[in-house]
What does this fold into?
Amino acid sequence: KVSKLVSTYNIDAIAIGNGTASRETERFIANLRYDREVKVFVVSENGASVYSASKTAREEFPEYDVTVRGAVSIGRRLSDPLAELVKIDPKSIGVGQYQHDVDQSKLKRSLDQTVESCVNLVGVNLNTASKHLLMYVSGLGESLAQNIVDYRTENGAFRARAALKKVPRLGEKAFEQCAGFLRIPNAENPLDNSAVHPESYPVVERMAKDLKCSVKELISNKLLIDTIDINRYKTDTVGIETLTDILHELEKPARDPRTKVQVLEFDPNIRSINDVKEGMILPGIVTNITNFGCFVDFGIKENGLVHISELADRFVSNPTDVVSLHQHVKVKVLSVDLERKRIQLSMKGV
It folds into this structure.
């Protein structure tokens, strides 16, 4: 059945949520024979159940039940994680600690700012973004995001950033704030798919003219970009910092900052806590960081804890100085408490 689905729908990749029985499911899927190369990924399913029962999910898939909505969410987390995760209240993603002990409105504000800065750093595809993703773009709120989606539905895909000005109630000020974060792949003007703001287009056009090439030829051409003397383009309104940002952006346009994915392979002999023995060295992935250390998933239901004192051979005051979320690490098993289902790990000297 699975092989038939893969060939019928030309599937290139399969995403599996990292919850209960994910290792067994991954093994089953990976051992099947397909008529093409199919990559198998295990993705974080934090917050997927919250999403599948939410108002947002009901709006998107009114005809499906929570299990199908959850499965769709897990698939989307592989193709475009940011667009999917913005639909979930950041508190429900379950990373960090003590979230119930702090002022909830301050927590929400801080988490929303973090999500907003991520969305604006990566940028948003104007022609595919949902209302929920657009809401986090600077200068756009819920009603403007909805207006953009409605305009797109009525008039088809945006061909240029300037067309945003035709969206009802999207004025000059909102355009000025949001335009640099909205991308249009395959736009007539290649700069519409970069973080270069429309007000800086004339500067880039002058650079291209001086180099006797088109803007399209200039983008991604590091040799040409390195020959540009930015001091020639400095004016009262465009400073060195802005020009430096423009050059950086011309080197790497478009919006996906992800590098080639590294697939982590867990130890195939470890299937449950009973297989874990003291002294073993295992590959794992950091799933959560707290003040007292970090939790590592090495392929079983229970995550192990690396206490802050076991993170490095030196004194560590803050775990984030040593590890980051979803980092691939090697850990040594210090102790296994079968009764309480707790595993103590160390990264010292591994």
Notes: The first strand starts at residue 13 and ends at 17. Strands lie at 13-17, 39-43, 124-125, 182-183, 281-290, 293-297, 304-307, 328-337, 342-346. The first helix runs from residue 2 to 8.
